[in-house]
Design goal:
heterodimer, A: two-stranded antiparallel sheet, 8 helices, 3 strands, B: alpha+beta, 5-stranded mixed sheet, 10 helices, elongated
């Protein structure tokens, strides 16, 4: 018994998998698995983070609860920041900046993640359906990829990587500061310290697993044998790079959790359990 | 050994049109989809066209789409499907169909011809090539390619946009450029061929939006995107989009 699958001729000229000469199958795909689940989950996860981080970045409040500073607000580059004793208050933008100081610094990690090779895959699939999944026809009439503006700017990823390094360094400094108590005495730690430690480990692992990092430390070389140290570094970043997606998600979640933790402390919703 | 009857829908036709045709066919334990297609040929439809050769996942001939996913017929075990599942087999949908499950993959051979071959170093004769393993192992991964063209088939740049076929070489051949650009003895640059520039300007690397479908379907498990396409994109950034690298190279050239 045959099931008719003549190529559609109505509306616009057939293209893509329905192009003339290709096997005439009307369906845009024949996948029977739940191919939509991965892009849907990705889009939901990214949207949740965007919504949360937008609210927190514009809130301009509840981002410091001694000794913890939210990673969304560090370093704080404007004069309108809450004074953080020993913390990352660097008022390089002076008093003219009236908006949330988070906006000044978040542009760098945002740019780093927006141009990241993993996130590109995630949002091209999840939001732009280009393609929604492998062998599932995309809905767009034309496609030029990353050959022209604005997507050619994805090639700036390595500059955001360079910018992400000092940001990660500052977050490391913030993590060291969490070994104080609320009275700024050193040699203490609480649940927040643990959270910040996990977060900074994930931030560094994500940053160093970046494809641009892998290229810069050694990937651009042609003769590894002439550069044994860089070869070793390339090997290490390669191992991390294989887990780039996992690190991208886990560091995204951990940074949001750290911010939420500080928010809960700053609003008095929660008391930081102290270990010592 | 157990047997059961499986339900198949196989695309039958040619460039003028065709349809999915239903078959019920006996399946034995341990068989792959290609075995079942051969049983169909032997028992029900001797004119069913299918391209195959080694039945071992090494010749890359039996590429097709099974339940909508680009796969090798000979490497897809029947045991991965439920026994009551209808299994749909079509030819690769990115290429012109010849008949039934056979497609015309000459697009790929045309693209292969456009990639400048390995350029031997002028100072070394045949038999004098010496390479350290760590220098050549990146290229060796890409040499595992069996040219099944499943990556080309699944790549949405050409699968969904026929008009891009002229400008875009596809993942298999961009990987070939990466292989040569990483090769420790390739002397293309000395001979005046800038593989990085041509990858972007002549072979359409910029069309790739690194959505990794090529890696997902590769039967040789080559990490095409992570190890070839992205490193090649980074090399292009070195050459075309990084003013610091450009400045460094310019200063170095002046010194020498």
């Amino acid at each position: 018994m045959a099931t008719g699958t003549e190529p559609p001729t109505r509306h616009r000229a057939a293209t893509g998998v329905r192009s003339a000469g290709r096997a005439s199958v009307a369906a845009r795909h024949l996948r029977t698995d739940r191919w939509w689940l991965s892009p849907a989950a990705t889009a939901a996860g990214l949207l949740a983070f965007v919504a949360y981080s937008t609210w927190r970045a514009f809130a301009n409040a509840d981002y410091y609860a001694a000794p913890y500073v939210s990673p969304f607000y560090s370093p704080c580059l404007a004069e309108n920041c809450v004074p953080m004793r020993g913390g990352p208050n660097w008022e390089v933008f002076g008093s003219w900046w009236g908006l949330s100081p988070a906006l000044l610094i978040l542009v760098f990690p945002l740019g780093f993640r927006l141009t990241c090779y993993y996130y590109r895959k995630a949002y091209y699939r999840g939001f732009w359906a280009s393609p929604p999944a492998c062998a599932v026809a995309e809905p767009h009439r034309t496609y030029t990829g990353e050959t022209r503006l604005p997507l050619v700017l994805q090639n700036l990823h390595r500059y955001f990587f360079y910018a992400a390094l000092p940001v990660a360094g500052i977050l490391t400094y913030d993590t060291v500061l969490t070994f104080r108590n609320a009275d700024y005495a050193w040699g203490h730690a609480g649940l927040g310290t643990l959270l910040f430690l996990v977060n900074i480990a994930l931030i560094w692992a994500y940053t160093l697993s970046c494809h641009s990092c892998r290229h810069i430390v050694g990937g651009r070389l042609r003769h590894f044998s002439k550069h044994p140290v860089r070869y070793r570094l390339w090997t290490w970043t390669g191992r991390l790079n294989a887990r780039h997606m996992l690190l991208a998600w886990s560091s995204l979640i951990s940074v949001a959790l750290c911010d939420l933790y500080v928010y809960l402390l700053a609003t008095g919703t929660f008391d930081d359990p102290r270990f010592f | 050994m157990s047997t059961y009857d499986a339900r198949f829908r196989i695309w039958r036709g040619d460039a003028d049109g065709g349809e999915l045709t239903d078959y019920t066919v006996e399946v034995h334990d341990g068989e792959v989809v290609l075995d079942v297609v051969h049983r169909l040929q032997a028992t029900q439809t001797p004119d069913l066209a299918v391209r195959w050769n080694c039945k071992a996942g090494k010749c890359g001939s039996c590429s097709a789409e099974i339940n909508g996913r680009p796969r090798l017929l000979c490497m897809t075990r029947m045991s991965v499907f439920a026994r009551d599942e209808v299994i749909t087999v079509t030819p690769m949908r990115a290429f012109p169909v010849v008949r039934d499950l056979v497609t015309d993959v000459s697009f790929n051979y045309a693209k292969a011809l456009e990639i400048p071959a390995f350029v031997p170093p002028a100072e070394l004769g045949p038999g004098e090539y010496r390479m350290r393993q760590e220098d050549v192992e990146r290229s060796q991964e890409f040499r595992k390619c069996i040219e099944c063209f499943l990556c080309q088939d699944t790549c949405h740049v050409v699968r969904d946009h026929e008009e891009n076929k002229e400008a875009f070489a596809g993942p298999r051949f961009l990987m070939r450029i990466a292989e040569l650009d990483m090769h420790p003895l390739d002397a293309a640059e000395a001979a005046g061929t800038d593989r990085r520039r041509t990858a972007q300007e002549e072979h359409g690397l910029g069309y790739c939006n690194i959505t990794k479908c090529c890696t997902e379907v590769c039967p040789e498990s080559i990490r095409i995107t992570d190890n070839a396409l992205i490193p090649l994109k980074e090399r292009v950034v070195d050459r075309k989009y990084d003013p610091l690298v450009w400045l460094g190279n310019t200063i170095r050239r002046r010194k020498t």
